[in-house]
Inverse folding.
């Protein structure tokens, strides 16, 4: 038996981390013991609402303790949480609810009206669950559903940049696969870290940054429900003594344009990470000169859950995306499937234990490749 909720949460309690801070931010603090209690009570609520193993619950939620509680509680009972973008309009949200055939929709309080509009357009939806429905007085469900490493755990919808958005289906084993490769061996995440991500948790990148990596290591996640802005992120860095900061090149450039005081960031942030687009060499130089913090640029994708090609701390090659993350096999091949010569463009193929099992309601298998940005691979 293996359940990713136990891996992320119960394992920390067993290690004696119950009193350690797990989540902080504008919505308040939760220790690991408090988080476990909330997850067990939320599991009871989900069961009472009739959610069955392998049924989907769409999560239209801002980054908050409620997001983490719902995500973990659904996996705990063998159901499948499906975080989706909070930038969707009602029609777009309804489309994903119908596509996933979700029985429940969980929404943050600020999205109540939009969720109701979407729910009308999704006839298979049984219930819209709001934060106040997570009854703190519910009896905790201590039993964990008997999933295995290969059991379906959660879905993430792709961005749709190369076509219609599709649900990449991930196993319970995908979570330790990314935590023990990129999280442990590239970030070097440790219990005293505090993680803040400009990318939201409904993205694969943000989910790893804000939930999977900190909880796997007994560290703390700093969750910001509001849209990320350079001044707001800088404020949170100083307020919560953030040590690991995650963003993308556009956001790092925005922080430079905002003319922020670099001293608070220099004092607490030990490392930054970038993904989503190529990090230009010039931008890397301006950022590190101004803020005094190194950036690890990398490539990831929803189908692989997180980053599989990255620079390393102390070994950054500006303008490149580094080398393969331990545990991943990478090849650059031409159109005939043959290895390309040094300096020749091709298609990057990736293989690793975090690979999605496939796309929901898609006949073809997941293509394990990322077009473009191949020159950085060595």
């Amino acid at each position: 038996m293996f359940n990713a909720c136990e891996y992320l949460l119960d394992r920390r309690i067993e290690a004696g981390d119950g009193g350690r801070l797990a989540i902080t931010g504008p919505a308040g603090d939760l220790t690991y013991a408090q988080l476990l209690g909330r997850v067990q009570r939320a599991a009871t609520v989900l069961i009472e609402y009739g959610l069955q193993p392998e049924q989907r619950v769409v999560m239209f939620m801002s980054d908050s303790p409620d997001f983490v509680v719902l995500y973990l509680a659904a996996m705990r009972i063998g159901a499948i949480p499906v975080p989706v973008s909070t930038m969707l309009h009602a029609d777009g949200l309804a489309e994903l609810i119908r596509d996933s055939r979700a029985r429940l929709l969980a929404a943050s309080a600020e999205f109540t009206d939009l969720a109701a509009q979407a729910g009308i357009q999704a006839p298979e939806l049984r219930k819209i669950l709001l934060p106040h429905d997570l009854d703190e007085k519910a009896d905790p469900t201590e039993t964990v559903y008997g999933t295995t490493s290969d059991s379906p755990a959660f879905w993430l919808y792709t961005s749709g940049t190369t076509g219609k958005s599709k649900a990449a289906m991930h196993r319970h084993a995908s979570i330790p696969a990314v935590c023990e490769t990129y999280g442990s061996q590239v970030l070097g995440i440790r219990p005293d870290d505090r993680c803040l991500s400009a990318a939201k948790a409904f993205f694969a990148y943000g989910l790893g940054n804000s939930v999977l990596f900190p909880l796997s290591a007994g560290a703390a996640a700093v969750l910001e429900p509001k849209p990320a802005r350079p001044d707001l992120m800088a404020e949170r860095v100083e307020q919560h003594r953030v040590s690991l900061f995650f963003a993308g090149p556009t956001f790092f450039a925005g922080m430079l344009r905002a003319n922020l005081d670099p001293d608070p960031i220099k004092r607490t942030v030990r490392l930054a990470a970038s993904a989503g687009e190529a990090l230009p060499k010039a931008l890397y130089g301006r950022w590190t000169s101004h803020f005094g913090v190194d950036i690890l640029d990398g490539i990831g994708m929803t189908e692989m859950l997180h980053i599989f090609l990255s620079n390393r701390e102390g070994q950054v090659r500006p303008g490149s995306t580094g080398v393969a993350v331990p545990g991943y096999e990478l090849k650059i091949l031409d159109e005939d499937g043959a290895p390309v010569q040094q300096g020749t463009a091709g298609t990057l193929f990736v293989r690793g234990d975090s690979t999605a099992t496939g796309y929901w309601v898609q006949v073809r298998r997941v293509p394990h490749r990322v077009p473009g940005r191949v020159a950085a691979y060595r």
About this structure: The chain has two domains: 4-13+40-170, 174-371. The longest strand covers residues 152-157. The two ends are 38 Å apart (CA to CA).
